[in-house]
Amino acid sequence: MHDLSETVAGVGVDGGQTPSAEAWSARAWFAGGERIGYAPRSRAIVASEDAPLRIFLRCEGDPAHAVSFLPGFPDGSFGWAKVRSYLPSATEMPKLFPDYIGMGDSDKPKDYAYSTSERADLVEAFWLELGVQSTTLVAFDFSSLVVLELLRRRLERSERGEPAAGPDIRGVFIFNGGLFTDGHTHPWYTTPMLRRLPNRIRRGVGRPFALFKRMPGVRQMWSKGYHVTDAELRELHSAMDRHDGLFYLAAAAGFVADHKAQGDRLDFGHIYKAYRDQFPFLVGGSDEDPFEHRQVDLARERLGKFGLRIERLPGGHLTTHEHPEALAALIAKFEQGTTIRPTNPAFVRAPR
């Protein structure tokens, strides 16, 4: 397999410069990464020629201490394109941008068991393959649940007397994500409706583009004052429709139900209290996010007295699109406050 640590950010501009519109295109975004082999049964990165599936991973800089930018629903890693443009360079801040199975430039099998657990499996697999020694977790939207799963697994392994089996965590940054099972506020015409669509209908969801832009909930991802253009919608559609992937809108729309089914196991309050003395947390939300707007209020009410840092930004759900510079500034400042600590040498594996 190609040494992903040598994949240099050759598309777009980082380090605080204003990029061109082309740098924010789906074509340019995916040109900056590669598709690598993944075997979900063994939960391992494998040689591409032997791979049941391929996933997209954009690696910028040395992965040993890279920040892991976990994608949101439904735009995947492409959602970070604008934010990346305002972040420090790959030398100052190495970065990993994966797409889960079903998203972006990753494969999109129709009969796959999409879940929070399998997404966490994938993250652990590429961490191991790349020899990631420490990382800061930056999660948007439903990747908050992946972070909760990853952290819960470490607690459970510790309870069984097993090693953590992963890199050291320097910090956890979650924005517009689900934290508490009683805090989800998804409008009925979005994920609740999508998850109930029968399989025969899912394959036609959002196709063609003219239908996609009129789908209930699409324009609601932006704030009322933001005038999203057809060009922006086309880029979003292009990123999601790669490899015949728009069916994922319905196939993965059960993540809220998945969270609720986990109950106390994936409760942010329990997990935060278990780790708050080990590394910093920041949770944030947009003022007009219709999907998770109660989460930040609940976090302040339940965990503010325990020192949880909470931030708000203007805009709708897709803060990554509306206010990428402000979000990037929050992330960069948060990362500056983390500390690289010695890692568990048993976990480290050099990239092939």
What does this protein structure show overall?
By secondary structure, the protein is α/β, with parallel strands linked by helices. It has helices spanning 26-31, 81-84, 116-130, 143-159, 191-194, 199-202, 209-212, 230-240, 248-251, 255-262, 268-275, 293-303, 319-322, 324-336; strands at 34-39, 44-46, 53-60, 67-70, 95-98, 134-140, 168-175, 281-286, 309-313. It has a 9-stranded mixed beta sheet with strand order 2-1-3-5-4-6-7-8-9, sandwiched between helices. α3 crosses α4 (143-159). The longest helix is centred in the middle third of the chain and has 17 residues, at 143-159. The chain is globular, with a radius of gyration of 19 Å. The protein starts with 25 loop residues before the first helix and ends in a 16-residue tail after the last helix.
Query: What's the mean pLDDT score?
Result: 86
User: What's the number of helices?
Assistant: 14
SSE arrangement, N to C: HEEEEHEHEHEHHHHHHHEHEHH
Structural class: alpha/beta
Oligomer: single chain
Read across the widest sheet, the strand sequence of neighbours is: 2-1-3-5-4-6-7-8-9
- Describe the biggest sheet? 9 strands, mixed
Distance N to C terminus? 6 Å
Number of strands: 9
Residues in β-strands, percent: 5-15%
Q: Portion of residues in helices?
A: 25-40%
Specify Rg, calculated over alpha carbons. 19 Å
User: What general outline do the C-alpha atoms trace?
Assistant: globular
Low-confidence segments, given as residue ranges, are 1-13, 345-352
